[in-house]
Specification:
Elements lengths: L1 H21 L2 E5 L2 H11 L3 E5 L14 H8 L3 E4 L9 H8 L11 E3 L34 H16 L4 H26 L6 E4 L5 H6 L3 E5 L10 H14 L3 E4 L6 H10 L2 E4 L13 H19 L3
Helix pairs in contact: 2-5, 2-6, 3-4, 5-6, 6-10, 8-9
The structure holds zinc ion.
Length: 307
């Protein structure tokens, strides 16, 4: 009897959870970082799915049919914008045919709208397959710009579900306060290494660099999106030797050969940072992302400090 009661209890729990899930706001985000911030603001009212994983290059994601299904059923879609997802988000949205989440629809959220952008070009040039043509799109790697992202997501949620606006606003205020507090801690941890010169694989760290007082001198990619060339690697190796630089930062989705080669030639070290939530199993939210990256940087810079 007790067993049967337990089974009934379990079944009814499952049923009520699934019923409640149905009334949630269905949100799809391009990146897991946008998912994390949406969950911070939406709380129990949102059910969020991120298309890209945390260890995929956000410029290049395979548009799978299952994503189209998610999008066709979504109430809201959140994108980094600029030209970050230009190869995969427009085809997915066009196939999903959900006018609510198309550009201009009430459920379409471009997370960049409130972000002060860096590296804005003086003219838009698509020549030679250039990327980052509207400014650097990797802005979520500055936690303070996370507040600008949150503002855009908040506005989207309030449009979709105005009945919960007060709750979203309360969550926005506490998210912002937590970001401010944590960012202060992270800046303090990085302070001893202010002005450290480093090399990066791809030009995706400019926001992180400015926030935490680093100086990225050059990249392994000769231009964003163009794979490292022997000429570029030789130039970087010479620069590292000349300026006694030891740290090369890379991302989980780049092959290690070029960075390892440069490290061997210079006695340097490759530090693979997380660029998104989920890059490592324990990086479960937007705060974990910076906890991890700051820890990695402090460890590497502490070892190789030339200041
Ligand atoms: Zn990029």
């Amino acid at each position: 009897m007790k067993k049967i009661m337990l089974v009934i209890l379990a079944l009814s729990t499952v049923l009520s959870v699934s019923l409640r899930a149905d009334s949630k706001i269905k949100v799809v985000t391009s990146l897991p970082d946008l998912k994390s911030i949406t969950e911070e603001l939406g709380g129990d009212h949102v059910d969020v799915f991120a298309i890209a994983t945390g260890f995929q290059n956000p410029h290049f994601v395979d548009p799978k049919p299952s994503y189209i299904l998610k999008l066709s059923d979504a109430d809201m879609f959140v994108t980094v914008g600029l030209d970050l997802e230009t190869g995969w988000v427009p085809p997915l949205l066009n196939s999903a045919r959900n006018s609510k989440i198309m550009k201009g629809g009430e459920g379409y959220v471009d997370a960049s709208v409130h972000v002060p952008l860096l590296q804005m070009p003086t003219s838009v040039n698509r020549g030679e397959g250039d990327i980052h043509i509207y400014g650097n799109p990797h802005y979520w790697l500055d936690p303070l710009r996370g507040k600008d992202i949150a503002q855009a997501i908040y506005e989207g949620l309030a449009r979709i579900a105005p009945q919960h606006q007060a709750e979203f606003e309360k969550n926005l205020i506490s998210f912002n306060a937590k970001i401010d507090g944590k960012t202060k801690e992270w800046i303090t941890k990085m302070a001893p290494y202010k002005g450290s010169k480093i090399i990066a694989y791809h030009n995706e760290w400019v926001y992180f660099e400015q926030r935490f007082g680093l100086e990225i001198v050059d990249f392994l990619e000769p231009k964003p999106g163009i794979p490292p060339s022997p000429g570029q690697l030789a130039k970087v190796i010479a620069e590292m030797k000349r300026q006694d630089m030891k740290v090369i930062i890379s991302s989980p989705y780049f092959t290690t050969e070029s960075a390892d080669l440069v490290a061997r030639q210079t006695g340097g070290e490759v530090v693979v940072l997380a660029t998104s939530v989920g890059a490592e199993e324990h990086i479960k939210n937007y705060f974990d992302l910076f906890e991890y990256d700051i820890r990695q940087m402090v460890e590497a810079l502490g070892k190789h400090s030339t200041k």
